[in-house]
């Protein structure tokens, strides 16, 4: 293995770490403004991580290698690991008195936009920590979209390549320069955050709550500033605002950009958008009807809470308006299976994602046709695109790895003494980056604070695995990867 690859990957991670360390100034100023002593925690953490990042950047400077697959795999893993460690430091040193395992879990949950938390008493937590969690979610959302649109398609382990999503006359690229797309993406991401903040503010949130919830909503992360999440506000308007933005941010950002910048209405016909909106609508209506009939809840209220909670689960947002596990067993089963599905590729949502479900369904249908016509020639399509063998292989590898990790992780938690529901739900929600699970311990009305350090470390690893599409990490375990 060429050490130049490690040096360059560490250099990039150090530069990004330097920016993240500088961002700690913002929560420090917030704590200083509110008179909370934790502002010193952010100053110390920023200086320490910033100094280490600067030293690492200077020590590893040099000519970068050409971007190849091996370098891409190393870079992705080092970036997400370093961001998690830097993000965990101020949380660990804060007045919350969390263990290192809890602080790391909180940071990983934020960076991966999972939304599971170990903090109790959020209503009394330092404002700087609350803002820092939301900022980590927001930064993680940017990284997730970049990962899904550019890096993973290049590595052939996931994502739908941006150039494949529209037939452009500019050498198969929607913009003449990549920088034009990046600027458009950042602008739309910021615009969505601002509009969401204003909407929450007008609906009755405080300015601080509105900003934190908007950053978490756009990143489909699910972190709230209150233990009761959206139940704290008891506002129908806020639930619909959140549902709209969670759904919007579960759509491919490349499609949103082409629609917003170029007015390309045809991009909204992307198959994964149709499928995602289809099962979101079906699940919401089914849950609303069941909740209305079984619990005698007015259908309007039932529909509001059903849409919000289903949008939260399917977008892997992780917010909650009520403990929906009390609505009945049918809702619990739907919520459990919805945990796995997720949103669209190229969005901030996690899960298996709609495009994989489409490809899997078409592979299944084509397999049945070949049983009937053994000599027939059939192609597997995603819309108008023929899915090549590499993409089919990547989808199957991902699904097998996801199921294998789910089973293995569930067995580990069960061996640690946790009940069946908690074990299988915690692993599923971590791999899918959803946040809350089901059951009394980690369900919508609970959190992960009671889990042991070994359990939290394993779930932190699973969240990272799920966010970087699993195969990006597992490939490092192959001896052939390290051979020259």
From TrEMBL:
One Pfam match: TrkH
Assigned GO CC terms: plasma membrane
Classification via InterPro entries: Cat_transpt, TrkH
Record localization: Cell inner membrane; Cell membrane
Keywords noted in UniProt: Cell inner membrane, Cell membrane, Ion transport, Membrane, Metal-binding, Potassium, Potassium transport, Transmembrane, Transmembrane helix, Transport
Residues at which K(+) binds: 113-114, 316, 433-434
TM regions (residue ranges): 12-30, 42-59, 71-93, 138-163, 184-203, 237-261, 273-293, 330-355, 395-418, 458-482
Family per similarity comment: Belongs to the TrkH potassium transport family.
Official protein name in the record: Trk system potassium uptake protein
Organism: Metarhizobium album
């Amino acid at each position: 293995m060429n050490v130049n690859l490690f040096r360059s990957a560490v250099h990039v991670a150090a530069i990004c770490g330097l920016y993240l360390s500088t961002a700690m100034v913002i929560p420090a100023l917030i704590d200083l403004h509110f008179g909370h002593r934790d502002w010193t925690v952010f100053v110390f953490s920023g200086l320490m991580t910033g100094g280490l990042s600067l030293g690492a950047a200077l020590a590893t400077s040099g000519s970068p290698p050409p971007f190849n697959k091996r370098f891409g795999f190393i870079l992705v893993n080092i970036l997400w690991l370093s961001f998690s460690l830097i993000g965990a430091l101020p949380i660990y040193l804060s007045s919350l008195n969390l263990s290192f395992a809890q602080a790391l879990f909180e940071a990983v949950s934020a960076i991966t936009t999972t939304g599971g938390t170990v903090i109790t008493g959020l209503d009394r937590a330092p404002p700087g920590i609350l803002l820092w969690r939301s900022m980590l979610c927001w930064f993680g959302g940017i990284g997730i979209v970049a990962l899904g649109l550019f890096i993973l398609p290049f590595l052939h382990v996931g994502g739908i390549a941006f150039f494949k999503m529209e037939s452009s006359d500019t050498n198969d690229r929607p913009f003449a320069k990549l920088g034009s797309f990046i600027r458009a993406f950042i602008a739309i991401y910021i615009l969505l955050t601002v509009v969401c903040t204003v909407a929450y503010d007008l609906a009755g949130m405080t300015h601080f709550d509105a900003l934190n919830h908007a950053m978490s909503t756009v990143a489909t992360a699910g972190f709230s500033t209150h233990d009761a999440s959206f139940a704290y506000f008891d506002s129908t308007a806020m639930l619909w605002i959140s549902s709209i933005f969670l759904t919007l941010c579960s759509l491919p950002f490349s499609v949103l950009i082409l629609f917003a910048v170029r007015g390309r209405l045809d991009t909204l016909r992307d198959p994964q958008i149709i499928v995602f909106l289809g099962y979101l609508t079906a699940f919401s209506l089914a849950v609303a009807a069941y909740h209305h009939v079984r619990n005698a809840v007015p259908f309007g209220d039932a529909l509001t809470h059903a849409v919000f909670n289903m949008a939260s689960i399917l977008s892997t947002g992780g917010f909650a308006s009520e403990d929906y596990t009390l609505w009945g067993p049918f809702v619990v089963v739907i919520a459990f299976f919805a945990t796995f599905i997720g949103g669209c590729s190229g969005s901030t949502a996690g899960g298996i994602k709609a495009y994989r479900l489409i490809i899997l369904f078409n592979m299944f249908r084509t397999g049945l046709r070949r049983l009937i016509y053994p000599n027939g020639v059939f192609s597997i399509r995603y819309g108008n695109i023929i899915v090549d063998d590499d993409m089919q292989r990547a989808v199957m590898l991902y699904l097998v790895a996801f199921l294998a990790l789910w089973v293995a992780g569930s067995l580990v938690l069960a061996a640690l003494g946790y009940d069946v529901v908690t074990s299988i739900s915690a692993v599923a929600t971590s791999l899918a980056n959803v946040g809350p699970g089901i059951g009394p311990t980690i369900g919508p009305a609970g959190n992960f604070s009671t889990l042991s350090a070994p359990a939290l470390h394993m779930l932190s690893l699973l969240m990272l695995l799920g966010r970087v599409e699993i195969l990006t990490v597992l490939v490092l375990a192959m001896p052939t990867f390290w051979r020259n």
